[in-house]
Amino acid sequence: MVERAVVVGAGLIGTSIALALGRGGVEVELADRDPATLRLACELGAGRPLGSVPGSGPADVAVIAAPPRAVPAVLLDAQKNGFAHVYTDVASVKESMIAEADALGCDLSSYVPGHPMGGSERQGPGAARADLFLGRSWALCPTTRTDPGALETVTRLAEMCGADPLVLDAAAHDRAVALVSHAPHVASAAVAARLRGGDDAALALAGQGVRDVTRIAGGDPGMWLEILGHNAAPVAAVLEEIAADLAAAAAALRAAEARDVTDLLERGVAGRARIPGKHGAERTPDYAVLAVVIPDEPGSLGRLFAAAADAGVNVEDVRIDHSPGLPLGVAQLSVAQGSEDRLARALGESGWSVHP
Ligand SMILES: NC(=O)c1ccc[n+]([C@@H]2O[C@H](COP(=O)([O-])OP(=O)(O)OC[C@H]3O[C@@H](n4cnc5c(N)ncnc54)[C@H](O)[C@@H]3O)[C@@H](O)[C@H]2O)c1
Ligand SMILES: O=C(O)C(=O)C[C@]1(C(=O)O)C=C[C@@H](O)C=C1
């Protein structure tokens, strides 16, 4: 049902979708308003430039993966040019996208508004990965005018990316993501903003806790301003509740009544327990992860990769946890299941400290 796809906007999300579809045998054509971005996405194997094979006709589906402000006009242009039979977008807000698309005169019958709940604080095709959506929900918000066949096609597309499609109304979607994505982003930024004034000695003590809480604060402020502006009232409502909890906690501590914070901490534990799936799990269930201690000195990562290559094991992904000022860091190597024992043995024999 999805054999050919067009992706307009070859950034983080567009290229990740293209890579995932390509792995499933889909022929992907890409477009981006920035030629360098398009070239990089193509070089990464995400697809070929749109229009490079003349006369190929409309694709099964076109994915509009541009920033929210651009989505309605890009959708209209794509439909006018007949890029595909079915269209979807990935913007993080849905009600305003549908209203703007309608006002511009887009064909709503072939448009299935969508939002994959996988992403990253990074942008551009260089950060893209085929497994970005594995095990994540993918919201689909058909309108009363959406053709059921179009919904089926986009459902299939989400499944081919390894995601779980979830059909819901656009307003309900926007309220939900205010709670689980947009307000958390602002809260994370508020915590991270405090660090600007911290002295170097304080920041040298930064451990995994503050890294976890602030990772998403590294996202592009321009993109987030667009998202927040398109979902302002629902996000403001959640932020007001968070602010009230924080104000009450600060008042209790000022009054030397730390025990009064118990309720908030317990509600926090209960709230976190409601997040489905393995909390904090790596997004790479296909891979085994080996932790290797690396000295903080020039060339140590290069030597580690060379040792992995000598063992004949391809490193699929790497994450480095390192606190400035400490002489050691930890590299988390993701490798294909089944190759981790061989790699651990080989690295151990050449002197690396390996923690499976
Ligand atoms: N970043 C995330 O975690 C995340 C997750 C889910 C959904 N989204 C949504 O995905 C969309 C893309 O975000 P991203 O993180 O991939 O951003 P990105 O900046 O990595 O990619 C956006 C791409 O769109 C291109 N573009 C902009 N205007 C265009 C136009 N008029 N025509 C063609 N291309 C155009 C840009 O050049 C850029 O390459 C946004 O709507 C965002 O809300 C983001
Ligand atoms: O950075 C991540 O890990 C994300 O998944 C980002 C995240 C999210 O809040 O979940 C951010 C915005 C999107 O619209 C979807 C996903």
TrEMBL record:
UniProt keyword Transport present: no
Coiled-coil intervals, chain numbering: none
Domain spans labelled Prephenate/arogenate dehydrogenase: 3-283
InterPro entries for this protein: 6-PGluconate_DH-like_C_sf, ACT-like_dom_sf, ACT_dom, NAD(P)-bd_dom_sf, PDH_C, PDH_N, Preph/Arog_dehydrog, Prephen_DH
Species, as recorded: Actinorugispora endophytica
Family (UniProt): Belongs to the prephenate/arogenate dehydrogenase family.
Protein name per the record: Prephenate dehydrogenase
GO terms for MF: NAD+ binding; prephenate dehydrogenase (NAD+) activity; prephenate dehydrogenase (NADP+) activity
EC number(s) given by UniProt: 1.3.1.12
Pfam families tied to this protein: PDH_C (PF20463), PDH_N (PF02153)
